Structure formats: C-alpha cells, structure tokens
Amino acid sequence: MTTENLYNPHISVDCVVFGFDGENLKVLLIERSIDEQNELYNDKKLPGSVIFYEEDLDDAASRVLNELTGLKNIYLSQFRSFGSPNRTANPRDILWLERTTQLKIGRIVTVAYVALIKIDRKLVFNAEDTSASWYNVNEIAGMQLAFDHNQIIADGLQHIRHRLDLEPHLLFELLPRKFTISQLRSLYDVIHQTKSDVRNFQKKVAQMPYLVMLDELEEGVPHRAARLYKYKK
Amino acid sequence: MTTENLYNPHISVDCVVFGFDGENLKVLLIERSIDEQNELYNDKKLPGSVIFYEEDLDDAASRVLNELTGLKNIYLSQFRSFGSPNRTANPRDILWLERTTQLKIGRIVTVAYVALIKIDRKLVFNAEDTSASWYNVNEIAGMQLAFDHNQIIADGLQHIRHRLDLEPHLLFELLPRKFTISQLRSLYDVIHQTKSDVRNFQKKVAQMPYLVMLDELEEGVPHRAARLYKYKK
DNA sequence: ACAAAAGTGTTTGGAGTACACCCATGA
DNA sequence: TCATGGGTGTACTCCAAACACTTTTGT
C-alpha cells in the first residue's frame, strides 16, 4: 500500500511528552535505527509524524500520542513551529524519513507540542516496532537527538515552565490521581527550580480550592504515612 | 515570470503588527480586492506571504515586514501556527491566493508572528499596490477578515499581552523614542486592561533602571509640559 | 482666572519568607 | 529506640493599593 495520497510531506508535528517520576521531570523519546551501508546507527527522537492531508494540526498531535500511549484526552499545547531549511541538513534524517514515510521528502516544517501525562499510567509503549522510554530532562542535553529535537525539547521545557506557572492546576496532569503534598511540592520545585519551605508550601496549598483532602493515607512507606489528596474540577 | 520554483505553496507566515497611537492599541491590516464575476469584493487581511523554498520562517516574516514598511530590526516573535484544513474553506480566499501567487494552492499552514512597531515612524505603506492602515484592536472583532485572520489577531493579542507582562522593556518598542510617563502609563494600561494610579505608577517607573530622564519637555500642549524620557539599553 | 494635566508621600493590608519542634510509623 | 519524613504557627519584610493637593502652562 502506498501512502502517497494520505500524507502531506511538508508538515509534521512533534510532541515533547513530559512526565514526573516523583523526583525528576522526564521526556519520552523513541528509539530510532537506521541502517547505513549495512551499519546500524541508533539514536533517539521525539514522537511525531507528518500530517495527513485534511488533518488538523491538533488532531495530528493527538493521533501521535494515541498511537504511542493508547491514551486520549492528554493535555496538549502547541508551542512553536520549527522551519529552518537546515533542520533536515543531516542526510541520515532525510534517509530515515523517506524510508518510514515512503515519500520523497524535501523540507519539512514541524509544529511542536508539549504534552503532560501521568507517568504511573500503564502505557502501551513498544507497541508495533517503536520502543519509547523516559529520560531525565537534564540528561537529554548531553544526547545527540535526531533533527533539531534537542532544540525543540529545550524550547518545550521553557514553555511548559511558563505555562505551569501561569496555570498551576496543570501540575495535576503530571501527578497520580491521588498524591501527597510532598509529591506536589517536589514537582513544584522541579518546575520552578526552587527548594520551597515545607510550612510555607502547606500554607500556599491550603488556599487552593481545587485541592481536596482524602480520608486516606499513603501505604508502604517506612515512616509516618502522609495524607493523600486529589485534584477536583 | 513564473514563481513556481521560488515559492513553497504549503506554508505561509502572517504578521500581527501592533502599534500604539497614544490611546489605543492598533493592528496593521491590508486592503484586499477580489474581482468575482465582475463584482469587486473588498476586505482586509493581515500582512503575510507564502515562504520561499529554502527560506527560514523568521526570515520570511522579516521580509514581509520589510516589504510593507521599509523597516528592519522590528521586534518579531512567532506565537502560533494555524493549520486547520478549513481555514481555506472560503473559495474567495483560494481564488485570491492563486491569483496573487500564480500557484496552485491547496491547503496552507500559516505560522503567525506578532510584531511591535513605533507608529510614529514614517512607513512606506501604499508602496506597490498594497495599501495598509491601522485599526483599533477593538473594532477588528466586528470586521470580517480574510481566512482565519480574526482568530489569529485575537490569539496574537493575547500572546503579546502575556509577553509584555513578562518582558516590560518591550513596551518601548511601541513608544516613540522620546516619551512622557503619561504615555507609558497609558500604554501600560491598554496592555494590562487596567487603570493605574498616577502616583503608584511613578513609583514603579522610578525603579526601572533602563528609563532615563531627559532634560527636555513636551512641546505644544495646552497645559503644563511633561518631562520626556527615553529607554536605554 | 480658569482649565487641564503634571508632579509628588504616606498609610495600610496582604503575600511571601524565614525559621524549629513534636508526631507517627516501620525497622 | 532510632531513623525518616509528616505536620504545624509566628514574626518580619516588602510590594501593591488607596488616597488629595499644589504646580505649571496656555487660553
């Protein structure tokens, strides 16, 4: 089957998918293998895809996430487009694109999205032949990703920091459904690059009307169990 | 002459150019005439253009502004891309595009920029056959613009409000080189949709290190002349 | 003289920050 | 009993907001 009539080879979407493991902010990357003159070259890239003709950009980003994780209703926000002519300067990237899309590829402008997901959800990674895993945002700076994906992640990170600052309720997209104030504080500190005071943080949190205290405690911790909270509305 | 080999007909840039006239926030729109079955239809659109093959997006936006105003070094910031398949649903828009570009046009994804310019600069409007003029942001909501340009302007306005809030020095891109504190306050209030107190505003302004008081006064005003200031660095 | 905007200080409330001790639990 | 993090209140500082009168200039 040919995809010639389905894909628009000029425009793609890429998603910077953020997760929080309780300690660090993580980004989801996909393994990529290219066989070049019978040598396998491996590296990583962001989840993404060229768009279909007649497909809206937001829909394309949702589709990419759904294919990758099996989830719908993920928080998604477009943050920037990347269209430098030399973002496809590396012949390896063109080669990979043409093989995977079966299209003749020239230049591609990509529209970048950030997504926030709860890392504790069981995700359908490794479906088909893709294998995805989480990487600390800090270690990514030292990796050599496909295309301009290092740049996209750096910009996405900056974007999401601003965004979570303006709309703090989005923090709950990254936490499990039930969470402790410590987890919330730790996430808050990772995002704001701060180290906030426990008592002051409790005070701040006490004024969040959308935070509701549950009648449940943490379990299986080797110390006093913390109270669980959930996010409402 | 054909433009077939120069333009990439899948991607365009559009610029929401903001100015400040001392009282209202303004946006620059271009007159558009389409002759449909021998009837002239007139409306307005944002300054924009499809990009050249091998042209970077930011460069395309700069080019559009330079062609329109004759100015370089205008503050420009990409804020969002619009790619809904039905943004070119109106046959009038397709007709106009194909006539002006001499290209077969299908779907176009546009990358939108905001620009800030000093409205007092003598601009090279009406060059060639384009005629551009300033419109109050408020009156634009009631106009029917080409494509999805109403939406783009609304989003651009929201973007620039956030942006000027985070980076207040950008306010000076909109003011004349020499200005009074009243003008600055009035601009500030238009952006923040507030009505700030004169004394408190003076206090705030007094702590801006990049604001320097000049040894000059306003001229030609029918009341006590205000001191002039300029922005430094 | 009067109209119109410029310019100038003080008080108050709320928000953010700093800071130390006892409690509950599992090992 | 000890180690580990959970949970709690008070004092200080700083910034934002409210508020009214005198000055300068042109008509």
Could you describe the 3D structure shown?
2 copies of one chain form a homodimer. By secondary structure, chain A is an alpha+beta fold. Chain A folds into 2 domains: 3-168, Nucleoside Triphosphate Pyrophosphohydrolase (Alpha-Beta Complex); 175-231, Winged helix-like DNA-binding domain superfamily/Winged helix DNA-binding domain (Arc Repressor Mutant, subunit A), CATH 1.10.10.10. The first copy, chain A, has helices at residues 57-69, 91-101, 137-140, 149-166, 181-192, 198-206; strands spanning 7-20, 25-36, 39-45, 48-52, 75-82, 109-116, 132-136, 178-179, 211-217, 227-231. In chain A, strands 1, 2, 3, 4, 5, 6 and 7 form a 7-stranded mixed sheet that branches. A 3-stranded antiparallel sheet of chain A has the order 8-10-9. In chain A, a hairpin with a 2-residue loop joins strand 2 and strand 3. The longest helix of chain A has 18 residues, at 149-166. Chain A is elongated. The N and C termini of chain A lie far apart (46 Å). Chains A and B meet through strand 1 and strand 5 of A and strand 1 and strand 5 of B. Chain A binds a DNA duplex (27 and 27 nucleotides) through helix 6.
Task: Note the beta-strand portion of chain A.
Answer: 25-35%
CATH architecture of the largest domain in chain A: Alpha-Beta Complex
Question: Uncertain segments of chain A of ≥5 residues (pLDDT<50)?
Answer: none
- Multimerization state: homodimer
- N-to-C SSE string of chain A, H for helix and E for strand: EEEEHEHEEHHEHHEE
The largest interface is: A-B, 21 and 22 residues
Structural class of chain A: alpha+beta
CATH C-level label of the largest domain in chain A: Alpha Beta
CATH topology of the largest domain in chain A: Nucleoside Triphosphate Pyrophosphohydrolase
**What distance separates the N and C termini of chain A?**
46 Å
The count of β-strands of chain A is 10
Summarize model confidence as the mean pLDDT of chain A: 93
Bulk shape of chain A: elongated
**Total of helices of chain A:** 6
Number of domains of chain A: 2
Taking the sheet with the most strands of chain A, its summary is:
7 strands, mixed
Q: Radius of gyration of chain A, Cα only, in angstroms?
A: 20 Å
Q: Considering the protein shown, what is the CATH homologous superfamily of the largest domain in chain A?
A: Nucleoside Triphosphate Pyrophosphohydrolase
Helix content bin of chain A: 25-40%
